[in-house]
Amino acid sequence: MNQSMHIRIQSASPPLLFPRASSSSYRSCPCYVVPMEASCNAGIMSTSLVSRCSLGGKRTHYVHSGQQIRKCSSQMGALVTSRESEVAATPAIGDDKIGVLLLNLGGPETLDDVQPFLFNLFADPDIIRLPRLFRFLQKPLAQFISVVRAPKSKEGYASIGGGSPLRQITDAQAAELAKALHAKDVPAKVYVGMRYWHPFTEEAIEQIKKDKITKLVVLPLYPQFSISTSGSSLRLLESLFREDDYLVNMQHTVIPSWYQREGYIKAMADLIEKELQKFDNPEQVMIFFSAHGVPLAYVEEAGDPYKAEMEECVDLIMEELENRKITNAYTLAYQSRVGPVEWLKPYTDDTIIELGQKGVKSLLAVPISFVSEHIETLEEIDVEYKELALKSGIQKWGRVPALGCEPTFITDLANAVIESLPYVGAMAVSNLEARQSLVPLGSVEELLATYDSQRRELPPPVIVWEWGWTKSAETWNGRAAMLAVLVLLVLEVTTGEGFLHQWGILPLFQ
Ligand SMILES: C=CC1=C(C)c2cc3[nH]c(cc4nc(cc5[nH]c(cc1n2)c(C)c5CCC(=O)O)C(CCC(=O)O)=C4C)c(C)c3C=C
Ligand SMILES: [Fe+2]
């Protein structure tokens, strides 16, 4: 692939700011050395991207955690401080027109949008990955699943006012980020590109072209990287870049995840600290981090770093709270499971019941995987999980709001953008250089390949039926049944006749 087509990936996040010596899951590893002028942005790398860095010729240590390699040690704190102030003073680059593209999920704005929104979501091969042979069935299957799921989803959206607040909140975040960048002498324009609803990423890209942006920072609004979220958006972006002459030549960089940034961690800790004060006995409250789940196979088979990043994010927030003398008990669980396949565990609902049984009386829920209020905070946590908690014997329930436009958080995003600017198009990366650099530079494909190298078939997270006695029988029965339904669907779609038409379910988009 042409190098200039590549979206360069880097983590603009500062090095790990918090010493991790106490974490037993970390083990030391050999050191690597690079010249003084080498950049020192921290990143997450697969073990195949072994990295090197040093400060003033000193050797810098790294620690491995599972698939990841990270810079270790408190000495990096000093580095960040100096780098941050240095970078904050960097003015906008010459005559360049700088753009920041915020990537997000998108949500239905009205109840009529729900089914087409779900269709877009399930038509995404990073959400439902069919075997190569059956890829042509992606859209009919998405149509089918979205129709089946729409009534349940609609109920949820109806209960939060008839639509998702995501667009409004993301637009507000974009406006605040633009203001924060201007205040730091970086007159950047900020764009919002949603994956499954308006304003679609394609629309944002059109505007970026119209505005003749010359340097673009791509910033997914997900703190932790997942193949199903940032990965999917980056994959789409890469295909758009590949097809377009203007974009191929535009300089850009990507910030793939930023959960370890000091500003983000502090902003989360601030919110938790504030919410704890609302309880009668704050020190007795269990802090309950609830992250959006992903199917287990994403992590175990495709190498999604989501779980590892989530766990580390929680550790960092707790360390920050401990520094503030807040030493509450805490736990992490995963919510919003869809369909019968196994998702990351423990599940939020099971954990709430268990905690109730163990006699926990006060719980503070902390949504951790997303920075806006959305259906899963406003409905699932605030209504369903609260009700379950109260039924399970928990007496006091609280919930930390999503970060939204919290100033510490927005300032941190602005700093992340500014720190990434020197890297926009600055590195003519050969594959070899990309592999040796400190951060996972390279094309989106390369980053995705790091975690998702074989792009294996994954069990669809949503299966509409299931039967059988053993797991294997269930799987094969499920597959056989799915095939049968797919054949029926194809017949329906191609002939315009069949049971879905008879029931008035199809056609949907007239
Ligand atoms: C980090 C956050 C998210 C991950 C990871 C994620 C994975 C994921 N999601 C689905 C299925 C659905 N997600 C839905 C809504 C939704 N998902 C996220 C975030 C993550 N999803 C958000 C913020 C939202 C809400 C948007 C809004 O409108 O407010 C939905 C639709 C709602 C519903 O019917 O429940 C579905 C379906 C899968 C299958 C998946 C991983 C493979
Ligand atoms: Fe989701």
TrEMBL record:
Pathway info: Porphyrin-containing compound metabolism; protoheme biosynthesis; protoheme from protoporphyrin-IX: step 1/1
Cellular compartments per GO CC: chloroplast; mitochondrion
GO molecular function: ferrochelatase activity
Domain of life: Eukaryota
Chemical reaction(s) catalysed: heme b + 2 H(+) = protoporphyrin IX + Fe(2+)
E.C. no: 4.98.1.1
InterPro entries in UniProt: Ferrochelatase (IPR001015), Ferrochelatase_AS (IPR019772), Ferrochelatase_C (IPR033644), Ferrochelatase_N (IPR033659)
Signal peptide: none
GO BP field: heme biosynthetic process
Listed SUPFAM superfamilies: Chelatase, Chlorophyll a-b binding protein
Keyword flag Nucleotidyltransferase: no
Top-level enzyme category: lyase
PROSITE patterns assigned: FERROCHELATASE
Main location: plastid
Location in the cell: Plastid, Chloroplast
Keywords linked to the UniProt accession: Chloroplast, Heme biosynthesis, Iron, Lyase, Plastid, Porphyrin biosynthesis
Keyword Iron: yes
Similarity comment: family membership: Belongs to the ferrochelatase family.
Record's function text: Catalyzes the ferrous insertion into protoporphyrin IX.
Name under which the protein is recorded: Ferrochelatase
Organism lineage string: Eukaryota, Viridiplantae, Streptophyta, Embryophyta, Tracheophyta
